[in-house]
Amino acid sequence: MAPDPTARTLVVGAGQAGISLVTALRELGDTQPVVLVGDEPEPPYERPPLSKTYLRGEHDRASLIFHDAAWFADLGVELVTGDAVATVGRDASGGVATTASGRTLAFDRLALTTGAVNRVLPVEGAALDGVHSVRTLGDADRLAPRLRSARRVVVVGGGFIGLEIAAGARALGADVTVVEATDRLLGRAVTPVLSEAVRAAHERRGTRVLLETTAVRLTGERGGVTGVELADGTTLPAEVVVVGIGAVPRTDLAEQLGLLVEARGIVVDEHARTSDGVTVAAGDCTVGPNPFDCGEAGLVRLESVPHASDQARTAAATLAGHRTAYDRVPWFWSDQGDLRLQMAGLPQGADQTVVRGDVTTERFSLLSYRSGRLIAVESVGSPTDYLAVKRALEKGMSMDADAAADTSVPLKRLITRVRDTDPA
Ligand SMILES: Cc1cc2nc3c(=O)[nH]c(=O)nc-3n(C[C@H](O)[C@H](O)[C@H](O)COP(=O)(O)OP(=O)(O)OC[C@H]3O[C@@H](n4cnc5c(N)ncnc54)[C@H](O)[C@@H]3O)c2cc1C
Description:
Elements: E1 9-12, H1 16-27, E2 34-37, H2 69-75, E3 77-80, E4 85-91, E5 94-99, E6 104-107, E7 109-112, E8 116-118, E9 131-132, H3 137-149, E10 152-156, H4 160-171, E11 175-179, H5 192-204, E12 208-210, E13 215-221, E14 224-230, E15 235-237, E16 240-243, E17 247-249, H6 252-256, E18 261-262, E19 265-267, E20 280-281, E21 286-289, E22 299-300, H7 305-319, E23 331-336, E24 339-345, E25 352-358, E26 363-370, E27 373-380, H8 383-394, E28 397-399, H9 401-404, E29 415-417
Parallel strand pairs: 1-2, 1-7, 2-3, 7-20, 9-16, 10-11, 10-16, 11-12, 19-21
Antiparallel strand pairs: 4-5, 5-6, 8-17, 13-14, 14-15, 18-19, 21-22, 23-24, 24-27, 25-26, 26-27, 28-29
Bound molecules: flavin-adenine dinucleotide (FAD).
Flavin-adenine dinucleotide (FAD) binds at residues 12-18, 37-40, 47-48, 50-51, 84-85, 113-115, 134-135, 161, 250, 253, 283-285, 303-306, 308, 332-334.
């Protein structure tokens, strides 16, 4: 049978997962025409620098963009920017989407890589001028000049993005306060030991960190923000307020398709397939089986560049008719000024944490264990230790917990099989 000339793949969302998916399709030898639709004005670009070097003026705009128009044309990918897919419907063999500008896009294969939007601070004053959050290049372009001139900055939310922006604002000379509602920084993602080390590191650099503190209102004058009112009635004066309180997955199209969706995202399986068995989804918009066997059951939501790229590669393989399960060890990094955090594995189920190095020197690693088995590493300023543990985790290996605390022994010498005492 001759190939259907109208057959094409529609990828909705031109971010990290979208670009990884179309690249992987071509690497797999898939030649079907692809349309990649993004609602932002720019071609796909790197998000991590937005809260780090780009905000501080150390990264030029053009270098954030992954590829130019010629690259997409060479790949046989039609890139549509500045237009959102507004409606979508499908059956088992294909479907039709329409965009906000009125384009109709027929497809036979569909991928959703729609990412997430930043959560809005649910208090009075959140829409005042001077209140920012960063997800897009446009957001960073708006914030960067304000940070450079601000004397007092309050960051609401002590997660990765909030702390990265806080470190940047402090390095630019502002008086910075981080307001965090829970009792520790980075509480959803890291061990308590790292939370405390990160708090101390920010305070050493002059940033004030207020834990168990809630912003109840943003105060303003003539439409501009003037401060953050806290639950205890005090107000922190600020010309700039940055909100970093997490992100909400963009699931509206999945809901239109009647796919299984929960609050944490579009539910996918290990092949990045959604509940209809044919539409795939990848990246920040998804929740799926833990790709890392660390004894944690249930679905996980991972928000990182490596996850978006790896899961998108799995989604591409599924679309191309291969069946490769997504089974990578999660890893992540966060540059908070001159403080570099590197993490691999998932420490949430840990029952033992080994401290390797001196936490106060900002050069240490924390190794997490569950029932004697290594499940995660968190390193600060220790890339060699980080890499040794990441490689061990990737090979399904472990390390003796008592020996790992001894910094005179290189970690790579301690790698052992799980439940085995013989060095590998
Ligand atoms: C400021 C910041 C700093 C970060 N730093 C790090 C870091 O240091 N390390 C790390 O590992 N990760 C970091 N991340 C996380 C990482 O960038 C994300 O996990 C990753 O970008 C997710 O990729 P994605 O493709 O799922 O989503 P995105 O990259 O967000 O892309 C989704 C795209 O889809 C578009 N879209 C959504 N709906 C539609 C529609 N209906 N029609 C058309 N387009 C649509 C969105 O506008 C967006 O452009 C950071 C994220 C941010 C925001």
